[in-house]
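Quick one, T. Sequence first:
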Amino acid sequence: MKYLVIYEPTSTGYSASVPDLPGCVATDGTREEAEQQIREAIKFHIEGPAGVR
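Structure tokens:
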């Protein structure tokens, strides 16, 4: 599944959010790092913590 991700520059780097997944956000120092963080956040948001079902 694909999700729209909105990236915004901040005073310390970039933030990323997913409008279709409320509360799914990430921040980091560069856009590339924020992209990696939001990918992990999306996965966690959908699957939940490892080992918890």
